[in-house]
Every structure is written in C-alpha cells, then in structure tokens.
Amino acid sequence: MSRLVCGVDLGGTKISTGIVTEDGKVLNSVKIPTLAQEGPDAVIGRIVKSIEDVLAMSNLKVSDLYGIGIGSPGPLDADKGVIMGAVNLPGWDYIPLVDRIKEKLNIDNVKLDNDANAAAYGEYLFGVGKGIRNFLYITISTGIGGGVVTDGKILHGANSNAAEIGHITINFDGPKCNCGNYGCFEAYASGTGLARLANEEVNKGAESMMKELAGDGPIKAEHVFESARKGDALASKLIDNEGFYLGVGLANLMNLYNPELIAIGGGVSKQLDMFYDKMMETAKKKALRPTFEICKVVPAELGDNIGVLGAAAIAFNL
Fold first, then answer.
1. What is the C-alpha to C-alpha distance for residues 203 and 206, in angstroms, rounded to an integer?
2. Mean pLDDT by 10 residues, the chain (318 residues)
3. 238/270 same-domain check
4. Which positions make up the signal peptide (predicted)?
5. Model-level pTM?
6. 176, exposed or middle or buried, with CB in 10 Å at 0-12, 13-18, 19+?
C-alpha cells in the first residue's frame, strides 16, 4: 500500500490541508481561514482541526499516516521545527510548531520547512523537476521566493534561510524593498514591483488604459498585463522591463547555483508568454555561457496544489 502523508500549507490568510499519496495525488483537501490575528494557539488549533477533518473525509486515522509536512512562511528553523518570527503570522516568535503538532496528534513524524523550499521540493518530487538533481524553483507573485534542490536535497544553509532569492540586489541604488534593503530583485520583478512602476508612470502624467482599468484604486499587475495584451504602449514597455529584470535575476541565479532546470510559478508566471523571450534574451547576455547553456527555464507544473503537495513532499523526505 502506498504511504500517505498529510500536507499542510500554512499561510497568512488561509490553511490548506490535504492527504497525499507517494505519487503526488491529493485524495482529499480542505481550506480554512488562518485568522492569524488570533495568535499562535488559535491557529495551531485550526491546523489540528484541518488535519482531523481531512482524515475523517478520507476514512483515515492519524496512525495511518507516514507523516505530516508543514510549509510555512519564514524565517524558521527547519531542523528544530520552530517558526522564528514570520511576518504574516503576528506573535509567532520562536513557536515550536512541530512539537506542538506532535503533542496534539500523538504522531512522531512531523516536518516543517519554508513554504518556498516546500514548493521547490514538491516540483522536484512530483512535478516538472522530477529526476533533475540540480533544480531551482521561483515563485513570482506579491513577492519573489524560491527554493534550491541540489543533488536531490533542499539547500537550507546554516539556519534554514538559504535561497532568499527575492532579496538578491540587482540595483544597489534602486527602490526600497519591504525587507529594508534597496534594489532587491523582488522590488523590481514581483507583481508588486511591476504595479509600483506602473503607478509611478501614471502619476507622472503618462496616458494609459491601465488607469481606466484600475478605476479609483491603484493599478495592479493584472491591469498592466491586460492593457499590454490590448496594445497599450506604456503597459507593453513595462512588461518588457519585467522581462529584463527577471532576466537579470535569472542570470544571477544561474551563476550562483548552476541548475539544470529553473521552474517558474506564482501568479505572474501565468503571463509568462508575455515576457519569456525578453527574460531569456537578457539572461543569455548576463549569465556565464556554461551556466546558461546547461539550464532550461520552464513553467512550474503543480499549479494551485503546490502548497499542499510541497508540504507533503517535505514529509516524504523525512
């Protein structure tokens, strides 16, 4: 019989939990609000309830599980199973999540990792990275995150905070990032960064249908893409810039990690066709030739299930 694990994707707004088979099939899953403002004890209670609910849906008991994997925002210490101050989880300062789950559910095999690392390992185990020993996953959405699999193992670094790729500096004199640094990859090439650049241009008086699409609110990344697809000149220029900035970041990552494959996921990746050519043209110019020529760049495969499947992959890697 195939081993079964429970994958838990703990986010700032929702908790997604599912029962997953060894070949990456999600048997049953549930999504509930995190209600992070209520604090760690309440959220841990909801994690436990979500696990119990999905077990009941699957006619399983905790003892039927090989393990439980949890993907969470960082920073965290994966070895100790401790969340050390996640930005989107108020009050989570050195919370021993793994020990709390073990105690409440009476199960030994519980594993915690950064959600981006979990996603990377999910794509490695179940998705487009299957069989690729040196693999890198990037998620481009509100921010930019990622994970590195090298020789089949997640690269954690000294205290589980390796591969914070959104915060490599691509322009030391650039805009301030949410991390406090200036000119981060994330500040330019994330969905948030793209929207910031669009709002700056329109606020300077540039004409664009992006303003009409946004109405009374700020321009968002989706307004930029929609306008560009309709032939808007400014939006098209911003998408070209998006491809350039992503290409600069990719070149850095190719030179740093020398992967065979880079998979791109996240909300912005759904528009990959609009900036792929510019991104690859830029990466080719800026990466070392051997690192560029060995590396393919493709869309991620796991889609909306990546959080649960990534967390499950962490459990299977116990």
1. 7
2. 91 95 95 95 97 97 97 91 85 95 96 94 95 94 92 89 90 88 93 94 93 93 96 97 96 96 94 97 98 97 94 89
3. yes
4. none
5. 0.90
6. exposed
